[in-house]
């Protein structure tokens, strides 16, 4: 059977399962649609959160980023997991007790203000929509690579599939679909990792393999990798980072952003009790941890595999490696996987010195003295996970599995985000402000219509990407970190913060963060409109635009506190509401509103 | 009524104390061991690198998981102790 047929088989079979589940769990009421009827088990919910959370960025890009950046990009690992501690301790149990459907609804009720609710709706839609565009684009690329169609066709297939199960099923369908997607994606991620770890270190568990000895050289894997990359002029894989302030703030931004992303918070409304919300967060992180502990192993092993593929004589024991005398791979002899990925344009080779060999080293180093004309190979970080099975010569069914897993990751997150958007529009905007008397049927219809519109918008923008994939994700996290998380937290932990404080806090955090990003990345991301070049020398105190969300969150906290302090106390019934949210008793009843 | 109120206040205080403790550990492993204090930990070798690198790539994630389960378990006990469980 051809690779194409195998891919079709795996992708088709997994989709049949998702759509089957969506039809089986079709939503009958708004409660089913928004919170899956409120009766999901914590372990099931934990798995669903895992799939919801782990997007194309986690599945496809993260290992590549770590492979390229080594220690410096550990921020993604800590940031995207550490946010769950904040969620579990500071938000999930209380929002579950509050027992409403959406994040803006909590903000509107707690701060007794329709304006606050509408500001929250805006923050939510901007954050979720920017995030979903990235997912659609990712799914489109994966479809086009594995189904051998062009990118636009891939994107349209992705949109149709998302449309089917998220619009039909709502949260109930999505929950069980996501459980299936989690299982598909984790198997797809770990199988190649296990084989590669076995091959390189003899250890079948990749997280342990990362710190084991490299079989071919007898050195520890990471020491071997450091030796190989520094010999070719790259920074050591485990090298320290000079700008610690930026690294701390970037990690903090990702953590607060994680805890403030509405599509993740919503998942905690689906369990029966407050105690279950706490357990759910723990289970979610266990399931996420399975991938996040494997990713750094995949990263270092893929990097080592790539280097030793190009420089075969570095595979074994090398001491005082002389890069100038090295024998790089002849371009003619390149393995099949390089040929395949060259076709997609994600690996490119340019024979600068016309010797027919692949010269692969850091451009910044002084290799020109040795008669080399510069690095000749560029490899897109995003392909590492997808190419891994091919690099390790695994059977073709593993490639089919990876295809299904990557798509599961992108589509489950897209579905979760679309749900957050549609409920903000139908529940908060339409029912909460425009037409409070709307029937349940009408609201459900509005939710489905807004979800369809969001899919169309996301598909359109995914097909015509404004060319800022990484910035989109940073913006989504920055917005969530700087706007939603601080007011949610203060709403629970402070009785003193009032409506004026919350609105001023959200707006100042949001605007501060957006302006800082736009100054370096261009206004509304339009190329050429940036005021300063996006380089470390121009950053204020060395804080990159990707890390600014953490500062925005601090601004939000400070403004909300000061404005509240200088205006009247919240009314008595609001203080009682805050009180009641703090105690878990009676959450079971609260969902039957 | 008054008793119920003091009971609830004591519960909330215990909760906030627990959260603070957990967050100190949370910050210590990630921002502390993995980033700021890494040079101090560089003399402790772990599989070809140092302990700080291990914390950055695995140690903090494992600690986070432990923290959430510890918090959930401890809170369930507090819920029972103060008669506030469901």
From TrEMBL, chain A:
Keywords: Membrane, Symport, Transmembrane, Transmembrane helix, Transport
InterPro entries linked to this entry: Na/Glc_symporter_sf (IPR038377), Na/solute_symporter (IPR001734), Na/solute_symporter_VC_2705 (IPR019899), Sodium:Solute_Symporter (IPR050277)
Record-linked Pfam families: SSF
GO CC terms, sorted: plasma membrane
Any GO MF annotation of the entry: symporter activity
Stretches that traverse the bilayer: 6-25, 77-95, 116-134, 146-167, 179-198, 247-269, 281-302, 397-425, 446-463, 469-489, 501-519, 539-563
Major localization listed first in the record, in broad terms: membrane
Cellular location(s): Membrane
Protein topology in the membrane: Multi-pass membrane protein
Family matches, as PROSITE patterns: NA_SOLUT_SYMP_3
Membership in a protein family: Belongs to the sodium:solute symporter (SSF) (TC 2.A.21) family.
Protein name: Cation/acetate symporter
Native species: Chromohalobacter canadensis
Automatic annotation (TrEMBL), chain B:
InterPro entries given in the database record: Na_symporter_ssu (IPR019886)
TM annotation in the entry: 21-41, 53-73
Classification via PROSITE patterns: PROKAR_LIPOPROTEIN
One family name in Pfam for this protein: DUF4212
Record bears the keyword Transcription regulation: no
Domain of life: Bacteria
Keywords from the named record: Membrane, Transmembrane, Transmembrane helix
Name of the protein described by the UniProt record: DUF4212 domain-containing protein
Origin species: Chromohalobacter canadensis
